[in-house]
C-alpha cells in the first residue's frame, strides 16, 4: 500500500533511512560487531577471489561492493554483468567465491550464471530482498536485504540495502583476516550517520524538485560524471534518469569525457558532477569546468568537506567508503521529479517489467 504517496518509488526512496537502521539491527551486535554465519565467512576467507554478479542496478551495487571488499579485506574482487558472464566466462581463479546480487532473486541472466557455478561445484552467496526466491534457494548461502517489498520498477532501496550489506560483510571478512582498515571501520556508527544523512536529503525534496525542473525537463540528454566510487554512482544515477524519465543519460568516468564524448556537450546540456572522494575531487571539478567552458549546465553533488560555494546539493560527511549511500539519493529524486513533472507513470515505465525473467 502506498498510503498517501503518489507513487511507490517516492515511498521507497523515503524508506531508505529505516532500511539502514533495520540492517544494523539484523546484522550487527549490541557492540556494533557484524553477526554473520561463520561458515559463510570461512568459505569466503578460503577463496582467493570474489566474483560479484548482477544486472542493472544490482550490477551497479556490485561495482561499489568491489571497492568495499578490496579496501576492507584486500581480497581481489571482480564484478560482472550476469548476461555477459554467462556466455563469456572469464578465466577463473583457483578458488573463486561467487556473490549474486538480486533484489528479486529471479533475474534469469543471473540465474544462468548460478546454474553454471553450481555445476562447477563453487560456493556462492545471494544477497536478495526475497526469501525463498530462485537465486536464494539455489545458492549455498543467502543474506536477506530486509528492505521490505520494492514495488516500483526503478530500484532504489534495494541498491542502498545491497551496498550497506556488502559493507557489513566486508567488515566481517576483513576482521577475520585482521585487516586494520576493517578493524577501524565503525560500521554501526557509519550506518547511523548514513540514516541521518539520508533523512536530511529526503527532507530536501522541494529543492531537488526545483533542480529537476530547471535542468532535466526539456533536455534530450544529460551526463553524470565522477571518478572511482563516484563514477559507479554516476552509472546508477544515469540509469534512473533513463529508465523513468526517458532522458538519454550517460554515467561517465570524468577523466574519460575529454577523450571524445565531450563533443556531445552543447549549450545547456546538464552535467552532474559527483564529488565525494578527496583524492579525486579536484580532478572532477576541473573536468566539470571543461564542460562548462563548452556551455554545459553544471549541477554538483558534493560532500560538505569537499564542497565549494555555489554547489547545488551538499551531502553530510561520512566515511568515504559509504558515500554512494548518500550521493545516490538526490539522483533518485532528480529522476523521480523529472518523470513526475513530465506526467509519466513513474512506477511503471514503458517497455519494462519489475523482474526480467527471460535471458
Ligand atoms: O531483481 P534484480 O536486482 O536481479 O534486477 C536486476 C535489474 O533488472 C534491475 O536492477 C533493473 O535494472 C532496475 N529496474 C533498475 O532500476
From TrEMBL:
Residues 40-179, 212-349 form the SIS domain. Its main location: cytoplasm. It catalyses: D-fructose 6-phosphate + L-glutamine = D-glucosamine 6-phosphate + L-glutamate. It is found in: Cytoplasm. The active site is at 354 (for fru-6p isomerization activity). The keyword Cytoplasm applies. It is an enzyme of class 2 (transferase). GO terms for cellular component: cytosol. Keywords: Aminotransferase, Cytoplasm, Glutamine amidotransferase, Repeat, Transferase. Its EC number is 2.6.1.16. Coiled coil: none annotated. GO terms for molecular function: carbohydrate derivative binding; glutamine-fructose-6-phosphate transaminase (isomerizing) activity. One of its GO terms (biological process) is UDP-N-acetylglucosamine metabolic process. It comes from the Bacteria. Homodimer. Catalyzes the first step in hexosamine metabolism, converting fructose-6P into glucosamine-6P using glutamine as a nitrogen source. This is Glutamine--fructose-6-phosphate aminotransferase [isomerizing]. It comes from Secundilactobacillus oryzae JCM 18671. The chain holds residues 247 to 605 of 605 of the full protein.
Amino acid at each position: 500500500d502506498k498510503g498517501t504517496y503518489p507513487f511507490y518509488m517516492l515511498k521507497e526512496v523515503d524508506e531508505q533511512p529505516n532500511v539502514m537502521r533495520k540492517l544494523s539491527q539484523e546484522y550487527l551486535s549490541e557492540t556494533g560487531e557484524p553477526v554473520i554465519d561463520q561458515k559463510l565467512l570461512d568459505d569466503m576467507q578460503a577463496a582467493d577471489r570474489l566474483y560479484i554478479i548482477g544486472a542493472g542496478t544490482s550490477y551497479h551495487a556490485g561495482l561499489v561492493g568491489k571497492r568495499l571488499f578490496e579496501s576492507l579485506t584486500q581480497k581481489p574482487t571482480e564484478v560482472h554483468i550476469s548476461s555477459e558472464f554467462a556466455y563469456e566466462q572469464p578465466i577463473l581463479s583457483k578458488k573463486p567465491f561467487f556473490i549474486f546480487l538480486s533484489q528479486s532473486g529471479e533475474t534469469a541472466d543471473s540465474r544462468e550464471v548460478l546454474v553454471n557455478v553450481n555445476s562447477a561445484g563453487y560456493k556462492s552467496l545471494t544477497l536478495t530482498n526475497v526469501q525463498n526466491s530462485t537465486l536464494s534457494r539455489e545458492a549455498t548461502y543467502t543474506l536477506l536485504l530486509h528492505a521490505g517489498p520494492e514495488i516500483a520498477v526503478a530500484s532504489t532501496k534495494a541498491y542502498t540495502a545491497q551496498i550497506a550489506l556488502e559493507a557489513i560483510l566486508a567488515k566481517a571478512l576483513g576482521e577475520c583476516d585482521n585487516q586494520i582498515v576493517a578493524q577501524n571501520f565503525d560500521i554501526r556508527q557509519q550506518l547511523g550517520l548514513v540514516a541521518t544523512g539520508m533523512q536530511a536529503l529526503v527532507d530536501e525534496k522541494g529543492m531537488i524538485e526545483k533542480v529537476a525542473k530547471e535542468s532535466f525537463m526539456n533536455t534530450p540528454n544529460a551526463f553524470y560524471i565522477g571518478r572511482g566510487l563516484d563514477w559507479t554512482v554516476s552509472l546508477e544515477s544515469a540509469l534512473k534518469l533513463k529508465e523513468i524519465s526517458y532522458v538519454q543519460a550517460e554515467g561517465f568516468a570524468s577523466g574519460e569525457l575529454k577523450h571524445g564524448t565531450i563533443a556531445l556537450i552543447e549549450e545547456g546540456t546538464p552535467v552532474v558532477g559527483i564529488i565525494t572522494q578527496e583524492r579525486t575531487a579536484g580532478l572532477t571539478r576541473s573536468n566539470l569546468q571543461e564542460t562548462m567552458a563548452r556551455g554545459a549546465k553544471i549541477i554538483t553533488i558534493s560532500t560538505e568537506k569537499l564542497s565549494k560555494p555555489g554547489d547545488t546539493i551538499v551531502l553530510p560527511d561520512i566515511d568515504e567508503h559509504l558515500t554512494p549511500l548518500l550521493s545516490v539519493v538526490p539522483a533518485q529524486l532528480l529522476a523521480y521529479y523529472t518523470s513526475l513533472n513530465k506526467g509519466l507513470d513513474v512506477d511503471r515505465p514503458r517497455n519494462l517489467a519489475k523482474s526480467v525473467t527471460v535471458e
